[in-house]
Design a protein that fits this description.
Strands 1, 4, 6, 7, 10, 11, 18 and 19 form an eight-stranded mixed sheet that branches. Strands 14-13-12-15-16-17 form a six-stranded parallel sheet, sandwiched between helices. It has a three-stranded antiparallel sheet with strand order 3-2-5, with no helix packed on it. 25% of the residues lie in helices and 25% in strands. Bound molecules: nicotinamide-adenine-dinucleotide and zinc ion (ZN) (2 copies). The site of one zinc ion has 5 residues, from loops. Pfam families: ADH_N (PF08240), ADH_zinc_N (PF00107).
């Protein structure tokens, strides 16, 4: 096993029991297996999924104790004997899909997020809220050296996921997409990817800070405040030139309501892409309108390795600029508190050195 100087102990944020709190403490540095690498995480984004894991509100159990986190950007410091195509010193990203079997029907078709035996970072295996994190070499994101590790961190889950979701929507340059939950981590990146893909953006979220960010920083063409609007459906339709609604809807919100509303404002022949995962939520659409409008409703789940590489390449080319705030790894609980209150515009990124 090749390696650099690696300490035996490190700082981490650990969930001892579902519901929390997270505990900032020292734990041993793990050793990579033959097909794994050890990544010295420099920066890691905080995704709302990490909060679902802490709260245990999805119908899938986490490992315990658990180190959360799946937007980890850092430097490879050790690798197992079977790893040939990742070098010590390379920059790499730990994604939600930490590993998959690579042999099942889905993995063989590069649909690895659908693998029935996945390893999920910060959920079924320890993730990036620690200074040294293990990931399967085949799955780590390759990060070019000219890309800043703090800014790329949110791309490793949020960026890849919304880029894939936009592709799944089938929306073409010049068409409109509504981004629901636009002011959050996924939503802010979704606006930038959508603009880079030549789409017009209707941002939907709430509050002056998020409205300003969407319209002035992220390039949204219009903003609908779901909490203030008297008729969200009509306002979204009105935001398209012919009043017939957006060609695609990307649902990245953390509440159920918009999942039951999107079918009403999506354009005939349009596509609703469900990405957000609010707890205990159900999709609902009127059968009559869905049929006579010939709409498509589908789910989209992270992305494969190629989607990941493409999303990073968009960023490297300077096309993706989404706001993020950097705080120490020790401050994770504060980030969760803000997330619960819906107060985060964009993304928080943790610096693992403090
Ligand atoms: P976030 O907390 O940063 O953002 C969520 C946003 O939704 C907030 O800005 C909030 O104001 C907004 N919102 C809440 N209710 C709304 C409503 N009724 N209408 C419009 N907006 C509303 O969360 P995030 O990190 O961007 O994650 C969003 C969701 O996506 C989470 O449920 C997360 O688990 C899920 N997720 C899914 C995938 C996937 O592959 N499908 C990947 C990553 C995250
Ligand atoms: Zn995520
Ligand atoms: Zn598989």
């Amino acid at each position: 096993m090749g390696s650099m100087d690696i300490p035996t102990e490190q700082w981490a944020q650990v969930i001892e029991k579902t519901g929390g709190p997270v505990e900032y403490k020292k734990i041993p540095v793990p050793k990579p297996g033959p097909d794994e690498v050890l990544v010295n995480i420099k920066y890691t984004g905080v995704c709302h999924t990490d909060l679902h894991a802490l709260n245990g509100d999805w119908p899938l159990a986490t490992k315990l104790p658990l180190v959360g986190g799946h937007e980890g950007a850092g430097v490879v410091v050790a690798r197992g004997d079977l790893v040939k195509d990742v070098e010590i010193g390379d920059h790499a990203g730990v994604k939600w899909l930490n590993g998959s079997c690579l042999a099942c029907d889905f993995c063989m078709q590069a649909d690895e997020p659908l693998c029935p035996k996945p390893q999920l970072s910060g959920y079924t295996v320890d993730g990036s809220f620690q200074q040294y994190c293990i990931a399967k070499a085949a799955h780590v994101a390759r990060i070019p050296k000219d890309v800043a590790l703090d800014a790329i961190a949110p791309v490793l889950c949020a960026g890849i996921t919304v880029y894939k979701g936009l592709k799944e929507s089938g929306a073409r340059p010049g068409e409109s997409v509504a981004i629901v939950g636009a002011g959050g981590g996924l939503g802010s990146l979704a606006q930038q990817y959508a603009k880079a893909m030549g789409l017009k953006v209707i941002a939907i979220d709430t509050g002056d800070e998020k409205s300003k960010m969407c319209l002035e920083q992220l390039g949204a063409d219009s903003f609908v405040d779901f909490a203030k609007s008297k008729d969200v459906v009509q306002e979204v339709k009105n935001a398209t030139p012919d009043g017939l609604g957006p060609h695609a809807v990307l649902l990245v919100a953390v509440s159920e309501k918009p999942f039951q509303q999107a079918a009403e404002y999506v354009r005939p022949r349009g596509t609703v892409v469900c990405i957000g995962l609010p707890a205990n939520a159900f999709l609902k659409a009127p059968v009559f309108e869905s049929v006579i409008k010939m709409i498509t409703i589908k789910g989209s789940y992270v992305g494969n390795r190629k989607d990941g590489a493409e999303a990073i390449e968009f960023f490297r080319r300077g096309l993706i600029k989404a706001p993020f705030k950097v705080v120490g790894l020790s401050e994770l609980q504060m980030v969760y508190d803000k997330m619960i209150r819906g107060e985060i515009a964009g993304r928080y990124v943790l610096d693992t050195s403090r």
